[in-house]
Amino acid sequence: MEAADTGNRTARATWLVLGLVALALVVFTKSGAGSWADASRLATIESLAERGTLAIDDSVYFWQGDRVRFDGRYYSHQPPMLAILGAGPYRLLHTATGLSIDDAATYRLLTWLLVGLPVLLGLWALGRLLGDFGVSPQWTAALVALAAVGTLLFPYALVLNQHAPAAGLVLAALLAARRGWPALAGALAALATCIDLTAVFFLVAVALPVWASAGPVGILRYGLGALPPLALHFSINHAIAGDFLPFGLHVEAFRYPLSTFLLQSLTGAAGRDGAFFEYARVALVGESGLFAYHPWLLLAVLAGVVLLRPRLPRTANAAVLVAVGAASLGVVLYYLTSSRNLGGSSFGMRWFAVFAPALALFPGAWIAARERGGRPWTPMPLAWWLAVPLVVVSVAGAALGAINPWAKFSWRHETSPRGITGLEEAPPSRIEHLRREWKRIRYTGPIDAESYEANYLTLLDQHRRFYLQPAPQLDAEARAEFVGRGLKPLLEVAAVLDEERSTSEVRPIAHFWIGKFHAAMGNTIAARASYERVLQLRPGYPAAQTALLALGADSDSPR
Questions:
Q1: Does residue 322 contact residue 329 with C-beta atoms inside 8 Å?
Q2: Nearest-5° angle of CA 228, CA 233, CA 236?
Q3: Residue range 208-234: mean pLDDT, rounded
Q4: Would you say 294 and 355 are in contact if contact means Cβ atoms under 8 Å apart?
Q5: Are strands 73-76 and 67-70 parallel, antiparallel or unpaired?
Q6: From residue 394, how far is each of 147, 294, 399 by CA, in Å?
Q7: What gap in Å lies between CA 248 and CA 415, rounded to an integer?
Q8: How does residue 557 score in pLDDT terms, banded at 50, 70 and 90?
Q9: Is the pLDDT reported for residue 556 higher than 60?
Q10: pLDDT band for position 268 (50/70/90)?
């Protein structure tokens, strides 16, 4: 009777964990768009609900940078599924209360609904899976808590982003596959993929536990369950872009005035120029490292290696573990080989959020296997001394990300926004740098139309500083090649602005920096032409006049 009472108490502990996570989501969810990704998704929700179209030309969030242009109309380049799911609730909210898409209450309510609920569903499914593995209620509650607040899941559960809901749906799909519900597993895995394309690795891998629990017929049902979300997703892609590729893979669709992707490579569009191992180090254990911020996951992976090393029995539990391992490895290898920006201006390697909570299944299965073998694991004092700091660091890492998921904390000045663009002649002290970084990630500047052009000018300036910074280690030929690499995207920025006869302040500035690049390469004729173009666009521009004088030209008579 006492054991039964203990089991009931500890089972309730898992529900207590879920309740505390739900409370944390209610309290800490952000109150507005903190990134272009959020803003573009809000633009699609608003356009669908208020105008019945996916085109965002008339949205209050039209200005943001995560947009593409097809046939003269603009769309969010984010997968549309999450916005489609949010359009109905927003329309009811807008009709009933008058709240608009840019109200703080709207953002919070949509985030709780579209992100918070799938996250809680996934954590509940994780607890059920651990129970199916035979994990004790005590360890189940502990592992669910670690998956919730000791991984990338928590920061991205506080914003209207695709990574956290996809992670929750992946866990739910694994549970459905394990329980022998293949159609539901297919629908959940496909929905996760349509929300976050990274989950495609799980869409493939979940077929393994489906086969283990339901056989060939189960695979057929799995495919049928996955068909509706996938059909909707691909039909939208085809209707707008003319093919089945995701919007973000259409490089030509980013060619419009003030597109940041004219200056920056698209995520996953190119490799990191041979620096694979250094990139992998930073992504796994460095400044953006999954294991640097959440080191308890290193123990989880170690448990998985121990479990998967011998030949696993052909059971549904084993198939779930293999699916998690294969899909997680697939995500890691894909982004280590095809990405180059460590997730952009965001906390950690945000693409890894889709599998991070599922890694909790490995230590759970390892603990359960020892108990079944009559060798229950009782942590020795030394193990506690090792495990507790890892857990504390992991939770602290998630808390750091939760402050501002859309800012990357740089532990070294050389990798900070100020350091890589040479904004300072002498680097600050270590303490001063950390103080500045702490201030920077806590500051959430305006994400609105007024700030977009100013940010674009800042981006141009950073681009100029990076490519025109002193490089005494390069000879003249290598220096010219390096500067020429920076000139190419600047020429494209100016060409698009000229083609569309833009009145933006960015247009003359872009031509001015083009002149500086030509001058740095020793091409005075091209530099003079660029400065004169600036004076045609903005007569009397002092910097262009001074630059022309430096070239020996008459600044008072632009040619």
A1: no
A2: 125
A3: 96
A4: no
A5: antiparallel
A6: 10, 4, 9
A7: 27
A8: very low
A9: no
A10: very low
Q: Which of 200-214, 215-229, 420-434, 539-553 bottoms out in mean pLDDT, i.e. has the lowest?
A: 420-434
pLDDT digits (tens, 9 = 90+) for 439-457: 888 877 667 777 888 889 9
Which segments of 98-241 does DSSP mark as H helices, in order? 104-111, 117-132, 137-149, 153-156, 163-178, 182-195, 200-205, 207-241
User: Where residue 427 falls among pLDDT bands split at 50, 70, 90?
Assistant: confident
The beta-carbon contacts of 304-313 under 8 Å, at least 24 apart in sequence, are: 304/359, 304/362, 306/366, 307/362, 307/365, 307/366, 307/369
- Label residue 260 exposed, middle or buried (CB < 10 Å: 0-12, 13-18, 19+): middle
Helix (H) / strand (E) element for 19: namely helix 2-28
Angle, nearest 10°, between helix axes 506-520 and 524-537?
Answer: 170
| Residue 345: DSSP 8-state | S
85 φ, ψ (degrees, to nearest 5): -65, -30
Q: Report whether 492 contacts 262 (CB < 8 A).
A: yes
Residues carrying CATH 1.25.40, the chain: 449-550
Name the CA dihedral angle for 82, 84, 88, 94, rounded to a multiple of 10 degrees. Answer: 80
pLDDT > 50? residue 119? yes
The rounded distance, in Å, linking the Cα atoms of 38 and 114 is: 12
Identify which has the larger pLDDT, 119 or 272: 119
Tell me, letter by letter, the H, E, C secondary structure of 480-492: HHHHHHHHHHHHH
Token code pair at residue 350? 């945000």
Treating both helix axes as pointing N-terminal to C-terminal, what angle do 524-537 and 542-550 enclose, rounded to 10 degrees? 160
How confident is the model at residue 265, as a pLDDT? Answer: 63
Look up the pTM and report it.
0.90
- What is the CATH code of the structural domain delimited by 449-550? 1.25.40
pLDDT > 50? residue 559? no
Q: Are residues 67 and 40 in contact, defined by beta-carbon separation less than 8 angstroms?
A: yes
Six-digit token pair at 400?
Answer: 């750091």
| CA 198 to each of CA 134, 156, 162, 254: distance values in angstroms, whole numbers, following the listed order | 30, 15, 10, 21
Q: How far is Cα 306 from Cα 303, in angstroms, rounded to an integer?
A: 5
152 close to 353: Cβ distance less than 8 angstroms: yes
CB neighbour list of residue 140: distance below 8 Å, 6 or more residues apart:
10, 14, 127, 130, 131, 364
List helix spans (H) across 339-448.
361-372, 381-403, 417-420, 430-442
Terminal CA-to-CA distance of the chain, rounded, Å?
95
DSSP 67: E
